[in-house]
Amino acid sequence: MRAALAAWDFGQVSLLVRQHGSLRQEDIVHLTGLSQASLSLVESGKRRLTNLDKIIDFLSGLSVPADLVPRPLREHNHFFQQPVRSDREGLPYGRSTTAPRGPGTRGMSPSTARGAEDPSDAQVLEALPSLSRVIASYDVPDDGPARPLFELEASVHRMTALRLSAQYVDLAQQVPDLLGELSRVRQLARSGERARVAGLLVEAYRATDALAFKFGASDLSARLIELMRWAASETEDPLTASAVAYVRTETFFAARAHAAGLRALENAIDEAPAQSNDQATAARGSLHMRAAVIAARAGDTDAAQTHLVAARELGKGLREGIYRGTAFGPSSVRIHQVSVAVSLGDGHVPRALEAAQGWAPDEREMPAERRSGFYIELALAQLQAQRDDDAFASLNAARRIAPQHTRAHPWVRQATRKLCRRRSVEPALSQFAEWCNVTRSADE
């Protein structure tokens, strides 16, 4: 049993429990909440139990003693930190009186918000309350360490790298303490250092916003963006203001206030600095890219094409790269051609497919988050064109590139549901649907 648990082989755990307690599969189903079909597949080794909530229900349902539970689970869930009874009805691992009962009362309450399948979702979601507390006390931070600015700069740049590579779990684990430390440093900073600290705060808030926005915490995201705007004003740097205007568009996307978002971006373009260097050119080009997409969402074809053309012209003279935390260059503009065409609807799908034809983003020049986003939007275009096999291949490509970004993306679930409705049950599609928390409803 210890070996099976250490290997996370829950099929073997079930078989050992049944053998030792003379139980039937129906008994395990009753105790754990797994379906008969799922339990059969797990016991036969044809499927591994990877959904963290289901694992916790499974182990707590069998009252597996806490000292046998794998350490990551024991440390992750308060239930396994408590003494566990194992004497119910004389069974070796019966459900204890303290165990959560049923799928609606799982021990990991944060993860129920999105039906987390693996530790990644749960860890990000569990970090959000901590982030909210740090944000709430941005001007009255707790006491704690305050490292030199050069060390903080290195830490903030690491957070940006994690954001761009869609490493949300690592980001969630590290950024709360960093935000608190930056808030303390800001209070202690001399007048000549305040602008530098404010710039670091903008960058750190942006990395944090990636977690909030991608995982559906729209109120927290909006709060972070307002703090970005506040901190940007202390930098007195127009390029930082342009970067914040780019991120602020998330608020308009979330509210479906596309026309207002377009106005805000066009105002930001008017206020952006002149194209005196690559950074300034990229700042303006990024704003045009963003404006093209939100114009398309607003149904304004002319504005979308105008901004896309402007972005393309600005990108011609630049090498693809990261400028003030945003990917920009010819390849990024090409990806936005696909995004604009998809947003404009069915009549523009051929343009999306044409822009993507025979081309793939290069991992050497573009971060994982942007590359996976390309394949997600391409999958939507392929679905609209009835190219289901290609769409599923694109979804899998996005997953390979940035699994955490792909799994958190609502359009992935939307595309997967559509595929499930169109196609007969296929193991690969069913496994993908389970991975991204899509279930086949009765009417599908």
Task: Describe the protein.
The chain is an all-alpha fold and 444 residues long. Among the domains are: 2-107, 434 Repressor (Amino-terminal Domain); 118-236, no CATH class; 376-444, no CATH class. 66% of the residues lie in helices and 1% in strands. It contains 22 helices and two strands. The chain has a two-stranded antiparallel sheet. The protein is flat, with a radius of gyration of 25 Å. Residues 75-117 have low confidence and may be disordered. InterPro entries: Cro/C1-type_HTH, Lambda_DNA-bd_dom_sf. Residues 81-119 are annotated as: Disordered.
Question: Which labels suit this protein?
Answer:
Cro/C1-type_HTH; mainly alpha; 434 Repressor (Amino-terminal Domain); 444 residues; Lambda_DNA-bd_dom_sf; two-stranded antiparallel ribbon; 22 helices; 2 strands; Transcriptional regulator; flat
Helical residue percent? 55-70%
Secondary-structure element pattern, one letter each: HHHHHHHHHHHHHHHEEHHHHHHH
Shape: flat
Q: Main sheet?
A: 2 strands, antiparallel
The count of β-strands is: 2
Residue share in β-strands: under 5%
Question: Structural class, judged by helices and strands?
Answer: mainly alpha
Which stretches are low in confidence, meaning pLDDT under 50 for 5 or more residues running? 75-117
Mean pLDDT: 85
As a whole number of angstroms, the C-alpha radius of gyration is: 25 Å
Give the spatial strand order of the biggest sheet: 1-2
Distance between the termini: 39 Å
How many helices?
22
Protein name: Transcriptional regulator
Organism: Streptomyces meridianus
Domain HTH cro/C1-type: 25-69
Region (Disordered): 81-119
